[in-house]
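input
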Amino acid sequence: MLFKTHMTSVSNTCWNIPADIVTNGETKSNAESPEKKRKKNTQKYLKSYTELWPCLLPSRKGVFFVHCSVCSVCVSDFSCMHAGKNDCKRHIESKQHKDYELLKSNQKAITTYIAPVSSTSQQLQVTNAEILMCEFICQSNLPLSTADTMTKLIKKMCPDSKIAAEIKCGRNKTTAILHDLARLTQKNLTDRMRSGPFTISTDGSNDDTSKQFPLVVRTIDPESKAVNSELLSIPICNESATGENIFMLMDAEFQSRDIPWSNCIAFGSDNASVMTGNKKGVIAFIERKQPSIYLSGCPLHLVHIAAKKAAGCLPPVDDVLVDIYYYFNKSDKRKSEFKDVQELCDLDQLKMIKHVCTRWLSIGRCVERLLDNWDALKVYFKSQKYLQDSKKKPLPTKSSIKDSSNSKKSMDNRNVSVDGGKLKHDSKKETASSKVMFEKVYMEPSYAEKKVESILTFVRSPTNKLYVLFLSYSIKVYEEILTCLQAEDPKIHILRRSLLKLLRSLIVRFVKPSAIANQPLDKVEYHLRYNIKPDSKLVIGESATEFIKRKSENHLKDIRIQEFYKNVSAKSTSLLYFLERFPCLIPENVKKDTVIEQFAVYQLTDLKTALGEEWLKSRMDEQWKQIGHLTDENVNTLFHELSEIMLAVLTIPHSSAHCERVFSTVRKNRTDQRSSLSDDTLQTLLTLKSRAGNFLEKEYSSQQLIKLKSAYYRSLNK
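output
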């Protein structure tokens, strides 16, 4: 029995027979097997049916049914469980489906007889009014929350207006509309950058929280042919602001917008090494993408640095201007007292102007105000010095020191303590405290006292007034070029001429005419002693000259005059080139010979007679626009291609003033009251403010108005 059981288990293991069909060592092989069931067809809906017949869609009845959009009038769902694809084919070829398809093709939708509400004239006018309100808030640097009150205000002001009654634009909708307007502006700018030449400029911000690098682009407006500067974006550098990282920000913007580097003809920046370095500067990485790029540094920075370096030989006038402003800034009492002194001196009661060293044109106005109030400042600070001295305790004399020492000895008997039955004086502690009190009372003046002392020392000196008179005259030489090169219209065509004019204005003031005649200005040897004018012939300004003539009246010493003269005297195109340097300037399907021929004819054409004298008074881009419209007797344009190339050359930035304007606009928008303004919204506001033209004259198409109407709805679905 045991052997039989063992053989049965071995047999089961070898043949893998389940144990549940083994009973007493015998299998159920002889049991009757059930009859095989017939397999049912359960074909489900497939997406390939819709690809073959677009009118077939998934059904709501289940996965085994198909919905026909053509036969929706009657029974529109049929089963595909039996034959699948053949079921669909059988339905498409049926007479019922063909009749419905014919009926539907000849039937017009009811919406064709009704105009959509969103495209009516009144609705578009309401949307246009909302856009104008958003633009006004943006251009006026107002908080976006102003829209909540302004909407109610407009309805209150215009109760009879149907358009005003329909305006519904709060702060959220205003933000959404401004974002869409900025995207529309950026798209137009990107299209111009893809299709034609442009220049790009950037500069870094001084913000501690985020390092911003605004990308300012100069392009040609295809309609007005004007050269404009517009903001593309404000990328933020979260890493170290190296030349490579700054370039990566720019390159990422270009790649995301599909802008080719080959259309970029110039890169504008300040003269920092991180921008202009030959190896690791931004320009070095740009040259790998665009070898023919032109680096346009900022001459304004160079002129400002040169003037500041030359002013280093003079007394620190800028420090005195800052000290005077902040001395009166937060004190109403001091302002009132100074107004009384101004009235006593018969002067206009004007406040002192703040001098900002980073603003190129601020020192001129500050120096003029300083000279106008020179006598009043001298009287005021002399009285302040007298009041401060009267409040101080008199300095100790020898007799007072002896008396104090005797009194100290008498007091030592009181300042004793018992230590182990012995008397002990606390003389060290008393000596230290008395020394501190002595230094506090007699030695250390306050901050205000120091400023009064320094300002009074400066304004009391007649030599310093002579230097300020000379500085006031010399600053005007620099202000002319600084004002000229900060203009928004293109000035690249007069850049060299303006710099040479500045150099000439400086050299003729202290160099003999014989050393300047018959040679270029950059070759004049102004550093040689025999080429410098004598002191009496130096051009220092009429006010400074008259001040020296009245030296006895002004208490001016001869040795000071000699030092003054010593300090102020000694330390102070081809068209083919552009075509070869920038091949992208040549328009498509235009040969280089055609442009050269037009340039040859241009040199012989009397433009003043052809265009009139008023033509010379307009902007340079406007002049070339009119030149491009000149025609011959057969009404063929004479200089159309040449005009396009010259307008592209005018996009080269003549300074970095347009980048500095962006930072000034940032400070006007991101204030203490709007500290939570996001970088995305800030970029939107600056993009719209940098857009050329007046927003009141801007017109939008019907499609743009319809899209802007749903801006807030689309912003919620993001």
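quick obs: The chain has 33 helices and 14 strands.
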